[in-house]
Amino acid sequence: MKVLVIGSGRVGSAVARELKAAGWDVTVIDEREEALGRLGETWTGEFLVGHGMDLQLLRQAGIEDADAVVVTTDGDNSNVVIGQMAQKQFAVPSVVVRVLDPARAEFYSSRGLNVVCPTSSAITTLTEAVRAAEGALR
Predict the structure, then answer these.
(1) How do the pLDDT tens digits run along the chain, 138 residues long?
(2) CATH architecture of 2-137
(3) I want to staple 108 with a disulfide (CB 3.0 to 4.6 A). Which of 29, 66, 86, 113 is the partner?
(4) Rounded to the nearest 10 degrees, how much is the dihedral formed by the CA atoms of 82, 51, 36, 69?
(5) 124-136 burial, b if ≥16 CB within 10 A, otherwise e?
(6) What are the structural domain ranges in the chain?
(7) DSSP assigned state of 29
(8) pTM (two decimals)
(9) How deeply is 23 buried, as exposed, middle or buried, from its count of CB atoms within 10 A (0-12, 13-18, 19+)?
């Protein structure tokens, strides 16, 4: 199975390492060459420097043969555009996009994009934790 991970920050690099350890063929794209360091000294997957909206770079990374694309850059707008390109232009079977803004995440999710919103997850978890402690506080 082949996956492209766009964005090698804390989240993207961890996803890339986990999928590589599970036997996936992983290619990571990041704008910063130093982001390769997040993958570790023993990284054996591919790493390309450039912007995830660069069609030539995506083709070089193998998007046309990819089974999945994970988009985790630090920009919601970039993530949505890259995810939509992977989904609509390249027909990648599984596209997962991180979107930090809950309203934007809901909007694009309702239009068929597979969105993960860690902000919404944090709000839910924190609220549930406070409510769980509510009884002990009385």
Answers:
(1) 999 999 999 999 999 999 999 999 999 999 999 999 999 999 999 999 999 999 999 999 999 999 999 999 999 999 999 999 999 999 999 999 999 999 999 999 999 999 999 999 999 999 999 988 876 666
(2) 3-Layer(aba) Sandwich (3.40)
(3) 113
(4) 20
(5) eeeeeeeeeeeee
(6) 2-137
(7) E
(8) 0.92
(9) exposed
